[in-house]
Structure formats: C-alpha cells, structure tokens
Design goal:
Helix content is about 40%, strand content about 20%. A seven-stranded mixed sheet has the order 14-15-16-13-12-17-18, with helices on both faces. A five-stranded parallel sheet has the order 9-8-7-10-11, sandwiched between helices. A three-stranded mixed sheet has the order 1-5-4. α1 packs across α4, α3 crosses α7 and α5 runs parallel beside α6. The protein binds nicotinamide-adenine-dinucleotide.
Length: about 500
Amino acid sequence: MQQALAAVQSEMGRTYPGVIGGERFTLTDTFASRNPARPGEVLAHFPNATVAHTDRAIEAAAAAFATWQHTPAQERSRYLLKAAADMRRRRFEFNATMVLEAGKSWWEAEIDTAEAIDFMEYYARQILRLADSSHMLTAYPPEQLQLQYIPLGVGAIIPPWNFPNAILAGMTAAAIVAGNTVVLKPAEQTPLIGWKVAELFWNAGLPDGVLNFLTHADGAVVGGRMVEHPQTRFIAFTGSQAVGVKIYETAARVQPGQKWLKRAILEMGGKNAVIVDETADLDAAAEGIVAGAFGFQGQKCSAGSRAILVDAIYDAVAQRVVAGAQQLSLGPTDTSADISLGPVIDQEAYERIRSYIDLGAREGTLLTGGQVIESNDNGYFIPPTVFGDIAADARLAQEEIFGPVLALIRAKDFDDALRIANNTAYGLTGAVFSSRRERLEQARREFHVGNLYLNRKCTGALVNVHPFGGFNMSGTDTKAGGPDYLLQFTQGKSVAEKL
Ligand code: NAD
C-alpha cells in the first residue's frame, strides 16, 4: 500500500483527457482534483467539457449502440470479468487513489475497491441469467415462445464522489453489460478514480463509443445536458436528494424529437436511525452506532446519523458512544494505515458540516467533538461529533448532514423509538439492537427502510448479500447488487411464433 501511494503521488499533477467515441481530447479549460487532507496538493487536471462535447458524446454512444446492443450477452459479460480481474491485480493502486483523492482510510478504500470488483463480477453473471428468460414462460405447444430482456439505449451515468470506485463501476458495468452505451461523468471531486475505472474497460477492448467519458467542475453543465438530451434513454444517478429530484423533473419533460419516456434510476440520501432498547447488548449497540455514524467520516448514504435510545438505557449508551467516538484517530490518511478518520471531501462540505455543528449546539447538548481542527495544510478535518437530547423533529434529526455528526434522540419506549425512526422523508437504512424476538419481528414489519439490520451496524452492505437501495425520498426503489437490478437497464420483449 505504501508503494502504491508513492506511485500515485509520483504521477500527481498530470492532465487527463475526455473521451468521445474512442477519441481523446484535451482542453485548455481544466479543473483540478485535490487531496482533501492538503487541498494545495493537486492530483490531476481534467477538462471542463462543454454542452457541445456532451452532444457529441451522446451521438457517439447512439452510433455505438447500433452494434453493441446485438453483441451477445456472453461477450459483453467478459469485458466486465476482464475489468474486474485487472482491478483485482491493481487493487492497491485503486485504494491509494481513493486515499489521496477522497480522504478514505486504507480500510474504507479497500472496502470500496472490493465492492467495485464484486459489482462487476456479479452483473457479469446476472446478465447471462437474464438475457434469455424464455425458460420462465409456461410451455404453450402451438407457439414457440421467447422472452428477451433487451437494452434501452444511451444512458447517462452520474455517480457521487463518496464511493468513487464501487458506485461508479457498478452503475457503469450494469448499464454496459445489459447492452446499453453510456456517457460517464464522474463527480467533480473524484475524476481520477473514475478515469482509472473507465480505462480498465477500454483496456479490456470495449468497442469505441460504448463508454464515453466527460468531466466538468460543475456537475450541472455536462450532467444537466446528459439528462436533458432527447437521445438519452435512461439516467443512472447516485447522489443528493436535491440533485436527484431535479434530474427526475428534467427527465420527465419530453424534448422535441424524443421517442421514449426516459427512465430515471435514482439513489439518493438518507437520515438513518439506529434504535436501541433496554434489552439490547449495550456494548455491541454502542460499537454499531459509532461504526455506522463515523465510518468514512459519516459520508455514507447508509450512515446512522440518528441514534434513538429508549429512556432506560439512554445515559449508559450515550456514555459508551462518546467513549467510542473519542477513540477514533483523525488525520491525513495517506500517512498511516492506523488513522481511522480522514478529512471531509471539500471546502463546501466542511462549511456545511460546521454550520450543522453550530446548529447542534442550539438544538441539543454537545457531548464530544465539535471543535475546529487546525491543520498546517488547511485540510478539511472535523472530529467525530455527538449531540445529546436532540428533539425528534429538530433539523439535526431530519436533514442529511453527510459528515461525522451524530444526533442522540431519547425515546419513551420501543414503540416511540420506531415512530421516531420512521418520521423522516427518507427510508434508506436502519438498525435495531434488541434481544426481544417480538420487537425484532415488529421492526421487520414496521421499520420502513430499504435496508434493515438487526443487532448489527447499518452500514457495510455486500453485493448480493444485502441488495442495497432505499424507499421514500432515498430513491426510486431499486436494489443495487441484487438479483433484479439489471432489469432497470433493460426492457422485456415477448416473441411468439405460430408453429
Ligand atoms: P451530488 O448530488 O452533489 O452529486 C452527484 C452527482 O451529480 C455528481 O456527479 C454531480 O456532478 C452530479 N450533478 C450535480 N448537479 C447536477 C445536475 N444539475 N444535473 C446532473 N448531474 C448533476 O451528490 P454527492 O455530494 O456527489 O454525493 C453525496 C450524496 O449522495 C449524499 O446525499 C448521499 O446520501 C448520496 N448517496 C446515495 C447513495 C445511495 O445508494 N442511495 C449512495 C452514495 C451516496
């Protein structure tokens, strides 16, 4: 890992191109990708592509679709298997890039890369099951029947920076293996890791135009045009609720010349809750709360940013959570494997999180963290911060902060805790710690989240172990890494021939 960090650092400051139809282009108008631990350190420069580039990329994707859609599923799947094998071989380089570009700890980077490999391996196999689903039909002797799941067309792939490898690789791989062609626009904070993933596919021999790659410092410029373009058939987006809703609205508007209703696959934010009742193993609960709230600095959509504790054990759990948070080490993760928390992603996130910390001091009691961390390099470091006695309807309990800030909420009893947990606009993940069987059963029935975890932390979903995706304002009810995910990228065609 140390060698990989040195190797990635030795390539710092290079300028990378955009790619349209297999052709690379560079521009004088570029933006920088920076190390959030030392923002003065520029990892790479990427072009600010224009609306005209976006149109050309979509046309290139549409041209490539003419042949790619008829490429056999077996062949398409092999590009994913090759990319996965190459990523496995270059795993430390991918990890090191995320440590430097996103401020991940070594362990969090390893998890991200492992998930990217899992997504590619899994979707490569799923498409074989899906491509010809005729065996699922009832035999009907007068006719010969076929049920095919065929691709949609050109897709806009718009990932976030927080799982810059796994989510980007997963959405791209799913779209391509299903026979679609895409324009991929990585998040502006993490274009370098996006470039490295795209390169794996190109190196695997993917035909020109199947995967086009554009970047811009402002996500709305290229991303907005990708969503709006009449030749775009679907959008795969993971990111904030605000942007997701905007994409949903834009995609719904039929543009002149558009021949279909666009499909929007949207994975958005969460305000996830961990419930602890008076029968729970309190040490395990506190450990789960700390891991769920502060892993990758709380910058996970699945992060448990609310801990709802029943009154009888509130103080005991609060004490353990504060002790656990204080044990986490904070610093530049590129210097040591032992640092558990790195910087938050950028200046904007730093300021937003700090304003929520100011708000928390008014809405509750600061139990630990909160203070400004000075760093010589102006890194965006925020300590794990816990507020006690936050009201269930306070802003700190309702709004996604996306940083290392945890709100403790007091509940009268288990029913009250469940009611509080369900009372947000989101519905992504949730956890319950209890040793009472009937309460775990009640949570299964009543806790309205896409990913429910009982007696364990609410983060860390594994591909095809915990298919992942949320309800309500957390998304469009899809499950990444699950057996039905590829259906989102296809349409069913039923064919009957009279014999
Ligand atoms: P974001 O919404 O700011 O950006 C996401 C992507 O959208 C980026 O690529 C960005 O450039 C692009 N974008 C921005 N404006 C756009 C526009 N007008 N049109 C088209 N594209 C546009 O989100 P982020 O800060 O990158 O990611 C953090 C958010 O992602 C959090 O809310 C988190 O909960 C969510 N998230 C959800 C999941 C999930 O599976 N549900 C997973 C990871 C992250």
